[in-house]
Amino acid sequence: KTDGFIPVSADEAAKGADIIQILTQDHVQAKVYKESIKPNLKKGKALCFSHGFNIRFKQIKPPKNVDVFMVAPKGPGALVRKMYEEDKGVPCLLAVFQDATGQAKQLGLAYAKAIGGTRAGVIETTFDEETETDLFGEQTVLCGGVTELIKAGFDTLIEAGYQPEIAYFEVLHELKLITDLIQEVGISGMRRRVSNTACYGDLTRGPKIITDKTRKTMKKILKDIKSGKFAREWIKENELGRPNFNRLLEEGDKHPIEEVGRKLREMMPWMKK
Question: In the annotation, is 173 catalytic?
Answer without folding.
Answer: no
